Amino acid sequence: MRSSGSTRSLPEPPIRLGLVLIGDDHARACTGRRLIRQGLAREIRRSAVTAGRAIVLDPYSTVPLTLADHPRAEAAGIVAVDCSWNRLSAERAKHPAPPAAARPARARRLPMLVAGNPQHFGRLGELNTAEALAAALYLLGRPEEAHQLLAGFAGGPAFLELNRERLARYARATSPEELVREERALFARS
Questions:
Q1: Would you say residue 122 lies in a domain?
Q2: Tally of structural domains, the chain
Q3: Contact of 77 with 15, CB cutoff 8 Å
Q4: pTM of the full structure
Q5: Residue-wise pLDDT tens for the chain (190 aa)?
Q6: Which range of residues forms the domain containing residue 99?
């Protein structure tokens, strides 16, 4: 049998999402727990984060997540820590970050984005866990997965709409330096 000349490519498997649940926020409002209940992410232990190869979302990392991180994310997944922003700030004050040389090479920060969730609507950088993982998926070239992840969350569509231009421009960046230039250009106008 001859080929018709067109090949149908198989869809890429979804990027695995992992969550470390700290458990310091309101359980009913916790987007991380909801992602786990829906089977969209799996809970992992803190010790697995240090031993694993997955990309770790770290708001204090100096290296932004870009499309260049796609191969690692596809192979090992993405991990986020689900905790309260209040606790994160307090913990950060008590335990300053280790020097950049001592941080894991796979730690990445998200670029500047505006929260769309009801608790932090309009605040720069204060994303809930679902928004953070969706942003990561978008930046890794998986916008459909990002939309699916946020579909059932209050503020999910608002997050994507508020950040439409930013996400599109950030997603085109192929290196951390290029993404930082986009970030500066977008926020210099504000």
A1: yes
A2: 1
A3: yes
A4: 0.83
A5: 444 555 555 567 789 999 988 766 666 668 888 998 999 999 988 766 666 789 999 888 899 999 999 999 999 999 998 876 656 555 555 545 544 444 456 899 999 999 999 888 999 989 999 999 999 999 999 999 999 999 989 889 999 999 999 999 999 999 999 999 999 999 886 5
A6: 17-188
Residue 127 structure tokens: 């994303």
Residue 82 lies in a domain: yes
Residue 67 in any domain: the answer is yes
Does residue 96 sit within a domain? yes
Is residue 147 within 8 Å of residue 161, measured between CB atoms?
no
Q: What is the C-alpha to C-alpha distance for residues 149 and 132, in angstroms, rounded to an integer?
A: 11
Question: Strand ranges (DSSP E) for 83-184?
Answer: 107-108
CA distances from 160 to 156, 167, 176, 188 (A): 7, 8, 22, 21
Token pair for 103: 């941080």
